[in-house]
Specification:
Elements: H1 3-23, H2 28-43, H3 51-70, H4 76-89, H5 91-115, H6 119-131, H7 136-141, H8 152-165
Length: 166
């Protein structure tokens, strides 16, 4: 990955984090700009990722995040942010980015639970989901607003980590 592509990823991820923490939303304009930047850098030969790999990264990023959104665990902005990051990272690094994001998201969930003094409730809910995975959609949709948190920071950490490792 070129320095230019890394800078585009980092700037987009940090901007998404700041906006998500403030408003609990990730704007379409930001995710579209990231996707266009990734595709444009690839087309110009400036990212170290081919145009096909950039487009495939966008699609795979979208597909990987979609189940979480359909279950109510993540917002649409999170899905589009991962797709935009995928266009910059390319298909070869987006799966690692998704895995690193999941790890960062789990750690963030624990920090948020501790901060909100809900660690026991969070761990009990996790235990219920492990014991009865079929209850996942109902459990997620019924989650109290106090258990939700901005996921943009986890995506930022995961995608930047994938870029640094990759």
């Amino acid at each position: 990955m070129s320095n230019t592509a890394f800078a585009a990823l980092a700037i987009g991820a940090v901007a998404a984090t700041i906006i998500d923490l403030r408003s609990r939303r990730i704007p379409n304009q930001l995710t579209a700009a990231m996707a266009a930047t990734g595709l444009g850098l690839a087309a110009a030969g400036l990212s170290g990722v081919s145009t096909a790999a950039s487009l495939a990264g966008l699609v795979v990023g979208l597909v990987l995040m979609m189940p979480g959104h359909l279950l109510g665990a993540t917002g649409a902005g999170d899905v589009k942010l991962m797709a935009g990051a995928g266009s910059i990272l390319g298909v070869h690094h987006i799966v690692n980015a998704f895995l690193f994001t999941a790890i960062a998201g789990g750690m963030l969930a624990l920090v948020v639970a501790l901060q909100r003094r809900r660690l026991q409730t969070t761990l009990a809910g996790t235990g219920r989901l492990i014991a009865a995975p079929g209850a996942l959609p109902r459990e997620l949709r019924g989650a109290a607003p106090a258990s939700r948190f901005a996921y943009g920071p986890a995506i930022a950490v995961g995608t930047i980590a994938a870029a640094l490792v990759g």
